[in-house]
């Protein structure tokens, strides 16, 4: 997996991740679990993920610089807090892990049917239209990232 976090959050342990899995009522995919244990989210350089036009008719990519983790002292970086805010708008078993441009979020699935799949969530759309699958795993999602600008430049 490529290294994406420039300024990681505080470290977490297996028990922290296990508590998150209890909230989700599902197990996290191993590549995303490893990401949390290694960096616990944080800030990255500015990346963009490009995807085919059929995912969203109005745009072909989204920028991402903020990655959520288990950070109760910083609610905007805390995936449990963000999940609580948007839980009524998304299906159970999806976890927000990164904030994208245009108020979009990237979500990862802990559901048995599509565990590990990554979705783009558009809060301005409703129902099934608000979610679009962009990668079949967290690792595949990271491989799709393209560096746009280094932080501070």
Order of helices and strands: EHHEEHEEEEHE
Second-tier CATH architecture: 3-Layer(aba) Sandwich
Number of separate structural domains? 1
Low-confidence stretches: none
Oligomerization state: single chain
* Number of contiguous helices: 4
CATH superfamily: SMI1/KNR4-like
Please state the overall shape, judged from the principal axes of the Cα atoms: globular
In angstroms, what is the radius of gyration?
14 Å
The level of helicity is 10-25%
CATH class: Alpha Beta
Find the CATH topology: SMI1/KNR4-like
Distance between the termini: 25 Å
- Structural class estimated from helices and strands: alpha+beta
Question: In total, how many beta strands?
Answer: 8
Strand content: 25-35%
The largest β sheet comes out as:
8 strands, antiparallel
Mean pLDDT: 87
Explain this structure to me?
It is built from four helices and eight strands; from the N terminus they run βααββαββββαβ. It has one domain (about 5-150): SMI1/KNR4-like (3-Layer(aba) Sandwich). By secondary structure, it is of the alpha+beta class. The mean pLDDT is about 85. It has helices spanning about 15-25, 30-40, 80-85, 140-145, and strands at about 5-10, 40-50, 60-65, 95-100, 105-110, 120, 130-135, 145-150. Strands 1, 2, 3, 4, 5, 6, 7 and 8 form an eight-stranded antiparallel sheet that branches.
